[in-house]
């Protein structure tokens, strides 16, 4: 380590040239100007965060997808001022601190010998830690709420194989290549594969899990909007991975029961499948 | 003897037998021996395995191993071992021959132990690898211009995307560590060479031998499992997968050896007065990255070795039917995969910090915090790998701890930004070409880093995993961050490597093409990701077309930028404006030695009296001025060569 | 100026290399020896009260990809006979003959009109066994019943399944479209026996084609090497996979 004598000398010089946090007048103006640039960047960033994602993301059809949207918006809003700090200082540096010398090969005179600033470093660290805690608490809360055992759930078996998905509804004997789901009912997908690892991704339901051969993995979703959603494969699985696509439909509970019957399930097995929750069995739409 | 009278080591006249076998070995003999041994291995294994069940996988593997061993035997990797075991270790003359004395330009095609030669060899290799990987990338982007393009069959497309990924990973791992940690870093610490010069040459030639197998995989059916080659898909793939595994095993040997070399060099060979606290940031970056690679890369070797035995001899590490699991592969892989991206990034960042300091004419801001930040990134990098596995269904209860460690990495990464921004703050910005890359990094890496935060949040990752958002994120960080660092390093240290200045006008043209190309290409891919387009697909639903078109147009702009950069590099090397020893008036040690750099790097043994960031500060005179000692006249010889 | 010309020339050379490499990769694409096989028109048919065009498509799945097929009669000529008698009027089943690999041939690319009734007549020569997923032993998405060797069946016997012809729509087009029909082994008494000669087992079924687009089909009975049986022949495009161009 350098001698303390050298450190001391440097401190003295730095203090003379940099009365920044001592309230020197010279540095309020750059701070203000940088602050303006920062504010502009932040506002643009927040506007993009609020307006862009919902325009380019698919339809929100589940609680989990809502969580994704909220996370995207929140993280973007929090990221905007952070990015803006870096970009504002960088932009300002090119405007205010750039030194053009008459001889291109001649370096400009040296800048201020600032080796560190405890306040700046601590503030930067402090804000980083605070932001990380916010993001973490948010993430853990959302994840916790997603994993909570729900009262009314149905289970659907998902089997992936090269290169198709099929779904079966245990107990009813119904197998289908289309994932029909009842609205407002939590579904637990029991996912496996016959050959290699696939990624079961019902896109508009905002969640996914890998289909592993030899194991069953579980993920749950609660669709809350009627309509069609896509099921894509998100894990490269060989030759026709690009075509491993199917779709699903979120329908009303009574439409769901009639669909099961139309696929050949007996009425008793349909009732057995959906009787997990009384309100469901009573055909609440 | 005065310094002016001391003879230059590189002018030593060597005897006719100096170097032993090395006199007759070069890249050509390596190629020949490699092809011959590969052919013998192929013929032998093919004949021995006639009619057996083991078939083509074993034959392909044995052939590739034959090539690797043959090439290295032919170029001279094993000479030293044999001579030492035979009790006839290298004489001083042999060592000088090994360092390239008296061979002129030919030493660049031989097993040369001079770290400066190895650095330049790495630079050329990196350019070749980027050429290959970049061409494959353009194939991908061109295919994705229309939704149902049948120009590339799905099998070819999968092969291209897999090899693109691996070639780029190899190239980015060595792009800064190879040329600059080899050429520049020893000079920066005042050493005469690396700690293990023969291992240094070995690292280079081993990577060269690792490249043909992976490119050869195209000819045996290609691989369809991505560069990540997840099992069990990769157990199922064509014999190209065996060639891939041999490449990885070989490459890992090179990287780990290079990491050891870097670490030992910095620990043991610093000049007097160069305390750890006076080390330039780039040196810290080199050892952090090298050590991280040392930890992480063997996990890849293990994962691929088990894959190879699963394929070739029927073990069941990854076969569920017989007790294995694909998750085992995924874990081993990502234990490498995450630290590996920091092995790629940190040297580039280190170079950019040096550039920022030199071109803002200011000391590095928060030096100790920066070092702590790099160590923090490395330490945390070891603990975050399963964030690549959030959606695999493996250990769902551990999602929260992994989320915690992953989000924590943003803190030391933020310190890196603090350092760069603080170094620029109130500097005298000298906007030469190397400085341009610092500003581009500041833009790109924020975007790359922030989008990583989205992916670290488990619920959000359950939407974004496996789609183009991930692809855009890692391209922003690896291409927009680490490669920009490499480009900066090239422009900055070019005068030392080539004795000329990197042409600034053309360089700036390249810069703008690259800068704009990156934005257009990868904003297009973020758009694709938000829309829900999976990654690694060759035909897609029509709704993704506008985003893909944007990304492809950007890719062509980016390609133009890198080609112009490459052209400028070559042109400047051959015809550029001659540079002085210190054109940037920088303070690190490498700028205080003549250009071209003497064989043992310095004309006098350097003694360091302060750190290299004294911009704006008065010269601190040493308490006792040491007598200059010409290199080569004292017992400064121990440990060299 | 010189530098600019140099840079531009380098760009041109790079683009030329790109095109060259692109052509090389494109040439790797498997193209069936018999090209794309168009379904033959056969008047119209009435489905659900609507009159739609009717076409007939012939499929053949061979036990081994080595050998030749007569382009007019569909007769098979094995490699030794072809060596003696020549191959005029015959095309190879597959460009890369691999004796142990079965194949759909001589074409794996078909074209059919959109929204038409397609009747498939399938000659099946291969052996087989049990599928890894009984779902694919049942027919899906067909009009009427599946006929195996002339008799209507509910599903192909689970221990004697040979291949499936599984057609899925282009991503994003015709959601939920799936046509999947299985075939029986050549000799139900010995499911592991098959040969390119002798009497094939036949399958006939009809399905409605979807909207215009590029549909991908593949066999869902894993008979290849390695994990899940999807290695080897199943992963190499052109043997057990192909496209249907719906015009």
Tell me what you see in this structure:
- The complex is a heterotrimer of chains A (285), B (641) and C (247).
- By secondary structure, chain A is α+β, with helices and mostly antiparallel strands.
- Chain A is built from eight helices and ten strands.
- Chain A has helices at 4-17, 28-51, 53-56, 63-96, 118-147, 253-262, 267-274, 278-281, and strands spanning 153-161, 164-169, 174-176, 179-182, 186-193, 198-202, 209-211, 217-221, 227-233, 245-251.
- In chain A, 45% of the residues are buried.
- Chain B is mainly α.
- Chain B has two domains: 23-84, no CATH class; 112-592, Cytochrome c oxidase-like, subunit I domain (Cytochrome C Oxidase, Chain A, Up-down Bundle), CATH 1.20.210.10.
- Chain B contains 19 helices and no strands.
- Chain B starts with 26 loop residues before the first helix and ends in a 66-residue tail after the last helix.
- Mean pLDDT of chain B is 92; it is low at 635-641.
- By secondary structure, chain C is mainly β.
- Chain C has one domain (30-246).
- Chain C is built from two helices and 16 strands.
- Chain C has helices spanning 2-27, 79-85, and strands at 36-38, 40-47, 50-62, 68-70, 76-77, 90-92, 103-104, 109-112, 117-124, 143-148, 151-153, 161-168, 178-184, 201-208, 213-218, 241-246.
- Chain C is globular, with a radius of gyration of 21 Å.
- Chains in contact: A-B, A-C, B-C.
